[in-house]
Amino acid sequence: MFAVNRPINENDFNDKVQGLLQADAEDYRREFPATQFALARVVPDHEFQNYQVLIEAKYIRKGTALSKVTDQIAADIVKYPASSYIVFAIYDPDRVIRNDASFAGDVESRRKCKVLALR
């Protein structure tokens, strides 16, 4: 997907995701609105408000421990409203995730969500 213009960091990855999603979507919002969880503000990377779809983008750098990624995903699963459908868009150019199907299956068994490993 990013063979020619690879994201250089998570913010750049989010910019590219926004470019794909924003086209003509009036209900699309980036990093807005905040929701509350245990008195803390939680802000999704991307949202389609009329559909209750949240998109969390994760950028896995070479050498990143997979446990760090799973910790972030686990936190997102707990913090976002149960009524929202979460899409985890994970940019993993160095294949830190060795088995996409197993990884996605474990996450998707926890709540309404979809895991997409992008390379």
Topology of this protein?
Blueprint: H1 10-22, E1 28-30, E2 35-37, E3 40-42, E4 46-48, E5 53-59, H2 66-79, E6 85-91, H3 100-108, E7 113-118
Parallel strand pairs: 5-6, 6-7
Antiparallel strand pairs: 1-4, 2-3, 4-5
Output the radius of gyration: 14 Å
Q: Structural class, judged by helices and strands? A: alpha/beta
User: If helices are DSSP runs of H or I spanning 4 or more residues, what is the number of helices?
Assistant: 3
Please count the beta strands (DSSP E, at least 2 residues each): 7
Distance from first to last alpha carbon: 6 Å
Write down the secondary-structure element order: HEEEEEHEHE
Instruction: Describe the strand arrangement of the main beta sheet, using strand numbers.
Output: 1-4-5-6-7
Q: In one word, what is the shape? A: globular
The percentage helix is: 25-40%
What about the largest sheet?
A: 5 strands, mixed
β-strand amount: 25-35%
Determine the mean pLDDT: 89
Low-confidence stretches: none
What does it look like?
This protein starts with 9 loop residues before the first helix and ends with a strand. The longest helix is centred in the middle third of the chain and has 14 residues, at 66-79. Strand 4 and strand 5 form a beta hairpin. The chain has a domain at 11-83 and 106-111. It is globular. It has helices spanning 10-22, 66-79, 100-108, and strands spanning 28-30, 35-37, 40-42, 46-48, 53-59, 85-91, 113-118. It contains 3 helices and 7 strands. Helices cover 30% and strands 27% of the residues.
